[in-house]
Design a protein that fits this description.
Blueprint: E1 3-9, H1 13-26, E2 32-37, H2 44-51, E3 55-59, H3 65-73, E4 81-85, E5 89-91, H4 97-105, E6 109-118, E7 133-135, E8 141-143, E9 146-147, E10 150-151, E11 171-175, H5 176-181, H6 194-204, E12 208-219, H7 230-247, H8 252-274, H9 276-302, E13 308-313, E14 318-323
Parallel strand pairs: 1-2, 1-4, 2-3, 6-12
Antiparallel strand pairs: 4-11, 5-12, 6-11, 7-8, 9-10, 13-14
Helix pairs in contact: 1-2, 6-7, 7-9, 8-9
């Protein structure tokens, strides 16, 4: 299988300088490496041209965001497998081989995520992707190895949990033909949650999302858009609403009614924890959601929805799971 490692970057010269050498070093020469530059003005393109002849550059006219930036940049890339890689990822030896073997052995697997660890604390899972992601009924994401803000040490406890609900966009392996057949990422999203939406759409059509724990990479989470940026809060809450409206098999009226109550409680918590700008970001997220709701419901009606989330109770607490 041909593999194309594709790095999308906007004004990421310092991150490229720090992390691209590991990609060059640990990626076999038979594979292609691409940089999609999202209209940078920090000298990123010139730096890569001068220092990394192996990297093929696709230069876009402006910053199109994560979702559209990849959609445009990938149009003329023909490798069988794509690895969409953040510019703040350090890879390790043999990080591609096991994943390519898995794709060859599993024709129904559309997306594979390696194990993500924290670049700054190598024994811990990465916050964003850890050992593969899941989603509760109301669209709140969590991972094997990370629940809310609690991140675990990687003691190989999830190495046998190979089937996941979503793969982290920081290091996202996907079959090229499937990515293009299903329209890639949703351009409405700009950034955040677009990979969760795509994974859900693919599962609604019978494909699998998997973890490969033999491949390990390290993520400097927040290198591009930090946790304290209100725009990140806005995109997360808005795109969460987009995703469950488009894809959930649950009753939409009750789902959104209950979620509004939960999100408003969360908004007041965030008001005191992070400040007024993050609170306003959540309000803006809802306004944007209702602006687009007719388009989202049209998608919902015209596409398959197989997965329904439901509650089960254990002795100690209540969990939210899903079934097909």
């Amino acid at each position: 299988m041909n593999l194309g490692i594709v790095i999308l970057s906007w004004n990421g010269k310092n991150l490229i300088k720090k992390f691209l050498p590991s990609v060059i070093k640990h990626t076999p020469i038979i594979h292609n490496i691409y940089l999609i530059d999202n209209g940078s003005n920090d000298g990123s393109v010139e730096f890569v041209k001068s220092n990394f002849n192996r990297v093929k550059i696709i230069k876009l006219d402006k910053n199109h965001g994560f979702a559209t930036g990849y959609n445009i940049g990938l149009k003329n890339i023909e490798d069988d497998i794509l690895c969409l890689l953040n510019n703040d990822i350090e890879v390790t030896e043999n990080w591609t081989e096991e994943i390519l073997h898995q794709f060859s052995a599993e024709p129904d697997t559309a997306v594979i995520q390696p194990k993500l660890r924290d670049y700054y604390n190598n024994s811990n899972f990465d916050y964003a992707g850890a050992a593969g992601g899941f989603l509760d009924k109301y669209g709140y994401p969590y991972c094997n190895g990370r629940i809310y803000n609690k991140v675990e040490i990687d003691n190989n406890q999830y190495d046998d949990k190979v089937e996941i609900f979503w793969a982290c966009g920081a290091c996202f392996f996907i079959r090229n033909d499937i990515f293009k057949k299903f329209g890639g990422f949703d351009d409405l999203y700009w950034a955040h949650f677009e990979e969760i939406d795509l994974c859900w759409r693919l599962q609604n059509h019978g494909f699998k999302i998997r973890l490969n724990s033999k491949s390990i990479v390290y993520h400097a989470n927040g290198g591009t858009l930090g946790h304290n940026n209100p725009n990140k809060t806005y995109l997360n809450f808005r795109n969460m609403l987009f995703t469950i409206t488009k894809n959930s098999k649950n009753n939409l009226f009750f789902l959104l009614f209950n979620k509004l109550f939960i999100d408003m409680m969360t908004a007041f918590y965030i008001l005191f924890d992070k400040g007024i700008m993050h609170f306003i970001a959540i309000i803006k997220a809802y306004l944007s959601f209702y602006k687009h709701i007719n388009l989202l419901i049209k998608f919902r009606k015209n596409n398959k929805r197989k997965i329904k989330h439901y509650k089960i109770r254990s002795i100690t607490c209540e969990y939210l799971f899903y079934k097909r």
